């Protein structure tokens, strides 16, 4: 008689996530492990917004979460900003805006653990970076003291290959 055990995909491990990041040419900061969760800090580039701070959080029993530190704490009329975040939640499926405990706007995408793999992570990262690009002018007041998008000159995104790789899965976000 063969043993009966859980059927399903093998659990996602921190080594899996690090392997996927390597295959996507993304270099994370060293991982941090605490209370059964693992996280990695990344600094990624959109095609227009550079230096986007992202944290990946792996709960191997639940999800792999892409957490974008979208902007510093909101210092303006909170009601107006909150309405903007709600509108963006409606406009961008598969990604959600919220306000962290320190009043910082965040953008998240969750990958259910049973669907987490290199390509789902790559699509999620490309999606949140493309959203950051699309909302660049609208969020400039939060991002820069003078509210103006700084000139980038000839700077090219470090994630250009990521956008190229997943352009067919995100055509509405990655149109030129």
Summarize the structure in words.
There is one protein chain. The chain is of the alpha+beta class and 176 residues long. It has one domain: Yope Regulator, Chain: A (2-Layer Sandwich), CATH 3.30.1460.10. It has helices at 14-23, 78-91, 118-134, 136-143, 160-166, and strands at residues 32-34, 37-44, 52-59, 63-69, 96-99, 105-112. The protein has a 6-stranded antiparallel sheet. A hairpin with a 3-residue loop joins strand 3 and strand 4 (63-69). The longest helix has 17 residues, at 118-134. It is globular and about 60 Å long.
In short:
This protein is an alpha+beta fold and 176 residues long. The chain contains five helices and six strands. Helix 1 (14-23) packs across helix 3 (118-134).
In percent terms, what proportion of residues is strand?
15-25%
CATH topology: Yope Regulator, Chain: A
What distance separates the N and C termini? Answer: 59 Å
Q: Helical stretch count?
A: 5
| Count of spatially separate domains | 1
CATH architecture: 2-Layer Sandwich
Total strands: the figure is 6
Give the strand order, joined by hyphens, for the main sheet: 1-2-3-4-6-5
Overall pLDDT level: 90
Low-confidence stretches: none
| Estimated helix fraction | 25-40%
Element-by-element helix/strand order:
HEEEEHEEHHH
Structural class of the secondary elements?
A: alpha+beta
- Evaluate the radius of gyration: 17 Å
What CATH first level would be assigned? Alpha Beta
Please describe the biggest sheet, giving its number of strands, its sense, and whether it closes into a barrel.
6 strands, antiparallel
Instruction: Note the overall shape.
Output: globular
